[in-house]
# Entry
Amino acid sequence: MTTDALFRIDGLVKRFGGLLATDHVTLAIAPGEVHALIGPNGAGKTTLIHQITGLLKPDAGRLWLAGRDITALADHQRVAAGLSRCFQVTRVFARNTVQDNLVLALQAHAGSSLRFFAPRTREAGLYAQARELAARVGLDQVLSREAGTLPHGAQRTLDVALALAAKPRLLLLDEPMAGMGPEESARMVELIESLRGNDGERCAVLLVEHDMDAVFRLADRVTVLVQGRVLTTGTVDAVRADARVQAVYLGAEDIATEPAP
# Structure
């Protein structure tokens, strides 16, 4: 296990009756890294994600973020600790403008900055932050549009922006390219690429995605999950050349995974 990891999972286990859905999963994500989690349908990715975000409690194992054990924290406490998530289904306030969506997300992270009975327009600082965030993700030209009227790709981008409003140290993106056309996917790839690195506005990314072209372009490292266990973790080139990974995506069975610790 990498000692300087920003995020670590140590021996995570989740059972549903006789089904071992997460089988001693261990992985580490470095600061500023884009780490992809891939695997065939039924591999256990969703179960693992729910444990990372706090929607499911593991039966064994620990999770660490920036040196802090977050295993027992509720989902909202994990957000406060620096973990944000975008779901497979876009979650925006469809009848509110893009600007209002961003202001609400920024206010939620800041706490009680919006004064009771005070017009939101007086909160100049929040609105300035909203404009900066919109520019960062490429939505500065549609601030006055109702979120629900945006194209699908722009709504997904807004969803990412809402997660970024919490200033996460680790951003979990759950199939961000789902339902997108080639042009929208390309813009999302560019946005994710802009997030990596170690300067103050950037964060590590855990990317769950079925678009292998996007995965291989974006990821610094890839973890392959099969039947609830880690098959392998490595660089894009190493994973792409792994005969076991190729067999998984060709439908082979009884693939030997890495032994549980």
Summary: The longest helix spans residues 124-137. The chain has a mean pLDDT of 87. The chain is about 35% helix and 25% strand.
